[in-house]
Amino acid sequence: MNENAPRSICLAILMIASIALPMLDAQMEPPELRDTEVKKEGTINGGQCSGHDACRGTDAGRYYSTAINLTSDFDFDGTNETNVYFGSHSNTAYDYQSAAAVDMFIVDTPPGYGVTATLSWNHTGQGTYDNYAHRLAIGPTSALGYYYYPTSTYGGSWGYCYYSTTGSLSMSTEVGEVTTTNPPYCYFTTSSYENHVDFPHDLAGDPMMIIANCYYCYYYAGNDEYQLEITVWPGDAGLPGDQVQALTGAPILEIGGGWYWGAGGSPSGTSWSSIQDTFTLSAGQEVGLDYQCDYWCPMETAVSLTAPNGTSYSWGVGSLASYSSGNLGAYSGAGTWTLGATDSYGDGGILLTVAESLGSFTGLLTGSAFDMDDKGSGNVGSTDTSDIWAIQIPDGFAANITLDWEANADLDLYVYANGDQTGMIDYSWYDQPEFIDLGGAYANTTVFVKVEYWYWGSIDPSAGYVLWLQLTPSEDPPCWVQNDGGSGGDAGDTTAEPTNVTSVGMEGTLSGKLCEAYDEYDYYLLDVPANYGVWARLDWEPDDGGGGSIYGFNHLWFYMYTASGSYIYGSTSTLRNPHALSTNNSYTWNAQISSASQILLQVRAYDIATDFELNYTVQYAIYDQSVEPTQSSNPDDAGSGQDAGDSLYGTDALGINSMNQTFEGWATTVGTGTTTTSCTCRTTTPCRSN
Fold first, then answer.
1. CA-CA distance, 662 to 409, in Å (whole number)?
2. Which helix (H) or strand (E) element contains residue 597?
3. Sequence-ordered list of residues with C-beta below 8 angstroms from that of 576, at least 6 positions apart, any chain
4. How far lies 611's CA from each of 404, 476, 477, in Å?
5. Which of 173, 242, 239 shows the shortest CA–CA distance to 381?
6. Could you tell me the maximum CA-CA distance found in the chain, to the nearest angstrom?
7. CA–CA gap between residue 398 and residue 268 (Å, rounded)
């Protein structure tokens, strides 16, 4: 036996005793406090916890106006910072949109920060619905719920995730879905939706919401409670830390799109099972290959690229995720390259873009006639003194650049002609914000901007900043000057910002214009008294500008919604011009007709000639929907004093004089609302006979 063993044993006993004796003398925590929810919730930044939700002791609201703002819980000190919150839902049955089933939280980060949110629950394997207990969503402050569809009464998010066999869901502004397994199942907006964002999504100082939604959390005991872990992290252009990205310039070749793609396809409405095209590179020229996928991409789509020397690059079915986008690498080599894609279902589903490589930089700012402002954010400081951005100025545009920040620091702005920071064009040192006006001298050019942290003039060790590019066209693009509905500008582009035209009166005519992609939507709002309905008609010229690319003529869609976004009626048929709508055929409208309300009229461009301003008129009337019009019982169709025939075969058609003329008539059906005895549609149609 080792002679030191007894001594070692004695020393160990003395050490244990020295630790245990003070603990025996300490007061034990009362049993009723050991595992309470308040204890588990802890404190945030040293503050006291008042209970669910998020230590506020109150239920988090289901709208932005009643959401809990968590911003003050974070220091935003240039480091990763995590807070853990607890919450609960009180619904006892399936419910996806009430306050009992939805909790919304606001995080308003400074520029140069991103957000990651992880929702987890007590997953015990009680049954299938344990996996479905909760949904997690992220989105803008305009979101009304977890769903990504923008006009839904519980929609407007950037995306959501659900179903977890481990009881955990995680999303971030960097990648959307943090997990790489399937499940969880996650769904995101596409480019055709007004609330669409690409990931990484640079918040650039804008607030966002995190939405916890009960799916089947009421089904098993204990599943109604959840933990929400939120991390804020510094970064550049939506990526954490000091990262750079491989950037590409103006497209050399673009192929793909598909049936479900929307306006960004090739064109919308085109399906394909195989697509291929070529591009040619000169010696020393390098290009990048970018892609955008639809939902079905991982199940159906493969991509191939063949170099002039025969080298082949391929991405098979399953390589690219749903709704994903990104870069498939940089390529060089003189000669002709071949790019192709296949879709096993035959409806297309990937958009491929070949563009000249700019190199690796913090981020890219650019714009077009569709969007003349672009902004990005980042972080610089004593350990990361500068960021380099590429700025692409389109042909025919003047540009200016603004650098702004909130920290007690001195940041400087430089503009270079080259990515290696040579060929200085201009600089700004002494202002806040810093500002450089490039004018129109650099149209159709890429310039490079450096944001620099000047150590000797700074107090704070780091500073988040916003870099803002503003463009001005040398000549007005389509729909640049508008006077929609007499408003002096463009009518609202979303349900959240319609143009109120109530002042026009109980009936009137509105004039407006739309452009494909430049200005796709116009929304008008009318205040409607109790027991009243709305009739509206949309007219346009189908052949102005030569017609659209899909149908060979211009085509618009026309919709009615309640002010909250509920669908009332719509007209999209290509066989109809004009479109005519009325509220009296709508159960949604009739169910609320006894109260004063509002109505939204949406005019949407579906197929218009490229770069053409299409003028339209909306004629409307607000009428007493509870009173049957005189014309329904005593029609005077075409001034005949009688009702025109009702047979589709013309057997009882009303005879008219054989000459060019315009006539007016009425069509009436019995309504279904509790206060509605009839519904009336009025139409004015030119009639020609020989």
1. 72
2. strand 597-607
3. none
4. 35, 11, 8
5. 242
6. 129
7. 31
Low-confidence ranges of the chain (pLDDT < 50): 1-42, 45, 263-264, 670-690
CB 461 within 8 A of CB 454: no
Q: Is the peptide bond before 433 cis (omega within 30 degrees of 0)?
A: yes
User: What is the structure's pLDDT at 268?
Assistant: 53
d(CA 471, CA 571): 37
CB 599 within 8 A of CB 568: yes
Q: What is the pLDDT of residue 368?
A: 83
530: DSSP letter: T
596-639 pLDDT tens trace = 999 999 999 998 887 789 999 999 999 998 887 776 777 888 77
The phi, psi pair for 547, rounded to 5°, reads 95, 160
Spatial separation of the C-alpha atoms in residues 289 and 353, rounded to whole Å:
6
Q: Tell me the C-alpha to C-alpha distance, in Å, between residue 402 and each of 6, 250, 359, 576.
A: 75, 23, 23, 48
Question: Is residue 318 classed as helix, strand or coil in its secondary structure?
Answer: coil
d(CA 669, CA 672): 10
Question: What local confidence, expressed as pLDDT, does residue 668 receive?
Answer: 59
Would you mind telling me the total number of residues written for the chain in this entry? 690
Among 453, 440, 272, which Cα is nearest to 351's?
272
Nearest to 209 by CA among 86, 69, 348, 88: 69
Distance in angstroms (rounded) separating the CA atoms of residues 44 and 55: 8
- Per-residue model confidence (pLDDT) at position 267: 52
CA dist 53 and 37 (Å) reads 11
The per-residue pLDDT for 266 is: 53
Asked if 211 and 147 count as a contact pair (C-beta separation under 8 A), the reply is no
Question: Within 10 A of 275 (CB to CB), how many other CB atoms are there?
Answer: 19
Q: Report angle CA 258, 262, 267 to the nearest 5 degrees.
A: 55
* Contact (Cβ atoms closer than 8 angstroms) between residue 612 and residue 544: yes
